[in-house]
Design a protein that fits this description.
5-stranded antiparallel β-sheet; TATA-Binding Protein; globular; 3 helices
Length: 94
């Protein structure tokens, strides 16, 4: 797991998880033109997005967000770019 960012707008992990759950919708993710499935675990405050060749796990901790991005061999060169884009999007809302 990689510590992605600290909360600046959200007070805690409960608020951050709620904000992301409201904003990270299928409509939002459809702009990337990838088939995906998103699941949320309200008790553990985790989000898992998966699709062909990738699995993204986002865990909301007390004061920060952790993530793990597993990508297929062909997609690995884009890992840093994807994580930077995710961090940028999350910084805007949490």
């Amino acid at each position: 797991m990689e510590r992605l960012l600290d909360y600046t707008k959200a007070a805690d992990e409960v608020e951050a998880f709620k904000i992301v759950r409201e904003n990270m919708t299928d409509d939002y993710l459809s702009q990337f033109h990838i088939e995906h499935e998103i699941s949320y675990d309200d008790k553990k405050r985790t989000m898992i997005a998966s699709g062909r060749g990738f699995t993204l796990t986002v865990i909301f901790k007390e004061e920060w967000v952790e993530c793990e991005l597993d990508m297929s061999f062909l997609l690995k060169p884009f890992k840093r770019k994807v994580l930077d884009a995710l961090k940028g999007q999350l910084e805007q809302v949490i």
